[in-house]
């Protein structure tokens, strides 16, 4: 069991890496006396929250934010396990897995819906998930969100797939760009990076559309969430509320202003190329949901994952105290 959990953490770290690139950089606000520590990833999930690094997330209070931009997903996972962050962004199923392992964090809001695309050679035509079976589809890591979503859709319709997990996320985008592989399920902005490679590639399938077609009763699935440390949430509910207001404003601003956001991310230390970011943002599906709306979205998704493989959630559905 311990070995499985270790392997699962490694897989989830790969999943987080789908949201992060580059090395660790600090974008802290000036000399916080009692900083609220917030971890962003140097990837699409962090891009949506970019305004937290230039706006005061706690207006009208003396609280200050210590915001750090992390490029190493394994580092973030280890620090979350140690409770070193007051708030951080994680894949939804990773948050549930850590909860079931007793890590004291609560989920405060969904920050991103699905942003997965099957990118393939233009000769590859996909009309349904069943068409995936005609060829090998590359997936960036076992038990990552691209893997789980692909498997859930295939299981629901009874499709047989030929999946290959040989490449990590960044190398898989390069393999597509170099015509080493013909088809891969990638998140944004890796999908855009591959599409801009100059190769004869296209989006053969929008995984969100396939999900909606397959699960019409739950037409969307959560990709990323922001979690807050349980004792921070209990001792400072007012600050959590202010932080969530700032998160919502940032996500909305980025979604509505991709060109301006792509310029801003470079200024605060993100390493993704701004032109790629500008094109990827409209397909990144940033959203802000909390409270009952958040829970109504997450619970059916978790139930589907439990039916597919309970171990990806740590063996159980999260309890009421998982939700802030």
Structure described in brief:
Pfam families: VitK2_biosynth. The protein is of the alpha/beta class and about 325 residues long. About 40% of the residues lie in helices and about 20% in strands.
Brief descriptors of the model:
324 residues; alpha/beta; D-Maltodextrin-Binding Protein, domain 2; 2 domains; 7-stranded mixed β-sheet; 3-stranded antiparallel β-sheet; 12 strands; 20% strand; globular; disordered N terminus
Strand content: 15-25%
Overall domain count: 2
Tell me the name of the CATH homologous superfamily of the largest domain: Periplasmic binding protein-like II
* First-last Cα distance: 29 Å
Radius of gyration: 19 Å
CATH topology of the largest domain: D-Maltodextrin-Binding Protein, domain 2
Helical fraction: 40-55%
Describe the structure.
By secondary structure, this protein is α/β, with parallel strands linked by helices. Helices cover 42% and strands 20% of the residues. The chain has helices spanning 2-17, 44-47, 73-81, 92-100, 145-157, 169-177, 190-195, 207-214, 230-235, 237-256, 258-267, 274-280, 291-308; strands at residues 25-26, 35-41, 64-70, 87-91, 105-113, 116-121, 136-138, 162-164, 183-187, 201-206, 222-229, 286-289. Helix 11 runs antiparallel to helix 12. The longest helix has 20 residues, at 237-256. The chain is globular and about 60 Å long. The two termini are 29 Å apart. Residues 1-20 form the signal peptide.
Task: Explain the layout of strands and helices.
Blueprint lengths: L1 H16 L7 E2 L8 E7 L2 H4 L16 E7 L2 H9 L5 E5 H9 L4 E9 L2 E6 L14 E3 L6 H13 L4 E3 L4 H9 L5 E5 L2 H6 L5 E6 H8 L7 E8 H6 L1 H20 L1 H10 L6 H7 L5 E4 L1 H18 L16
Parallel strand pairs: 2-3, 2-4, 7-8
Antiparallel strand pairs: 1-3, 4-11, 5-11, 5-12, 6-9, 6-10
Helix pairs in contact: 5-8, 11-12
């Amino acid at each position: 069991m311990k070995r499985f959990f270790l392997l699962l953490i490694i897989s989830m770290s790969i999943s987080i890496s789908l949201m992060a690139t580059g090395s660790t950089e600090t974008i802290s606000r000036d000399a916080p006396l009692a900083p609220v520590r917030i971890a962003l990833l140097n990837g699409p999930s962090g891009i949506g929250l970019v305004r937290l690094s230039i706006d005061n997330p706690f207006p009208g209070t003396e609280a200050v934010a210590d915001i750090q931009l992390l490029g190493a997903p394994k580092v973030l996972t280890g620090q979350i396990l140690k409770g070193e962050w007051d708030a951080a962004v994680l894949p939804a199923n990773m948050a549930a897995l850590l909860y079931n392992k007793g890590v004291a964090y609560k989920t405060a809001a969904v920050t991103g819906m699905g942003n997965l695309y099957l990118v393939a050679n233009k000769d590859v035509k996909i009309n349904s998930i069943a068409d995936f079976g005609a060829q090998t589809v590359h997936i960036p890591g076992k038990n990552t969100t691209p893997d789980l979503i692909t498997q859930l859709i295939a299981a629901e319709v009874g499709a047989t797939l030929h999946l290959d997990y040989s490449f990590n996320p960044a190398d898989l985008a390069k393999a597509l760009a170099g015509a080493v592989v013909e088809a891969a399920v990638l998140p944004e902005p890796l999908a855009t990076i591959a599409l801009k490679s100059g190769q004869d590639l296209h989006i053969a399938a929008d995984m969100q559309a396939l999900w909606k077609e397959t699960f019409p009763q739950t037409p969307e699935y959560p990709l990323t969430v922001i979690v807050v440390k349980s004792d921070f949430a209990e001792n400072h509910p007012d600050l959590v509320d202010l932080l969530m207001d700032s998160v919502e404003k940032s996500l909305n601003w980025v979604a509505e202003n991709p060109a301006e956001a792509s310029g801003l991310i470079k200024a605060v230390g993100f390493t993704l190329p701004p032109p790629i970011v500008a094109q990827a943002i409209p397909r990144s599906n940033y959203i802000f949901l909390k409270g009952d709306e958040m829970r109504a979205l997450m619970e059916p998704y978790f139930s589907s994952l439990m039916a597919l493989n309970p171990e990806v959630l740590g063996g159980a559905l999260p309890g009421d105290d998982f939700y802030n």
